[in-house]
Design a protein that fits this description.
The structure is a single chain. α3 runs antiparallel to α4, α3 packs antiparallel against α6 and α4 runs parallel beside α6. Helix content is 35%, strand content 28%. The protein is elongated, with a radius of gyration of 19 Å.
């Protein structure tokens, strides 16, 4: 029974990378999204032998990040059946930080995605490296969207330098460009997330 479930995850699950303590430790773990009936909490189910811990960050092939808040092993007949990794999406995590800054967990993010090192009160944030990587990627493009992508990066720089207030829909006019260049979504969210963490409350 349990072997069949593990095989199901391997063949039907999504592939995730695991970032832990600022280091990518795995980029081929398979998991399946699910919702716990008793609590209505969303989680990602993994095979029992998977190495998943609270405060890990899981990144799927679309560069979407999932912040693991808790991990529990589900047992059936005294045998481990699956690991339940409860998570917050990036948007949920941003809101969690804004609403509960003093109790928010600390997530260390690999520099390739933009990182936060230390506590919220004394964080060293290298979102500037993410912006730099975005610039390099855009400069290497041969695309009609290149100019608009450069404008998006300029907006991000102005926001992180406190030269421009964050407003709802600030990137809305670039919606089609962002949709065509899906990698930008993760980079924008990463920069804004890391910048928000360092803002005074």
């Amino acid at each position: 029974m349990f072997g069949d479930f593990s095989e199901f995850i391997i063949h039907s699950g999504q592939t995730f990378s695991i970032v832990r303590d600022n280091v990518k430790i795995n980029d081929k773990v398979k998991g399946i999204f699910n919702t716990e009936k008793s609590s209505s909490k969303p989680y990602i189910g993994f095979a029992p032998e998977s190495d998943i811990k609270a405060n890990d960050i899981l990144i799927n092939k679309s560069e979407k990040k999932f912040y693991i808040t808790d991990v529990k092993t589900q047992f059936i007949d005294d045998s481990p059946f699956q690991i339940k990794a409860y998570y917050l999406s990036e948007i949920e995590y941003i809101n969690y930080i804004k609403d509960k800054p003093s109790s928010a967990p600390t997530f260390n993010i690999n520099a390739a995605y933009g990182s936060v090192i230390g506590t919220q009160n004394s964080a060293t944030v290298n979102y500037s490296s993410t912006i730099h990587e975005m610039k390099e990627q855009v400069n290497s493009l041969n695309s009609d969207d290149k100019e608009d992508l450069q404008k998006i990066i300029s907006l991000l720089e102005m926001i992180t330098q406190n030269e421009l207030p964050v407003q709802q829909g600030i990137f809305s006019r670039f919606a089609e460009v962002i949709q065509r260049n899906s990698w930008v979504t993760g980079s924008i969210t990463s920069v804004l997330l890391n910048w928000l963490i360092t803002q005074p409350h």
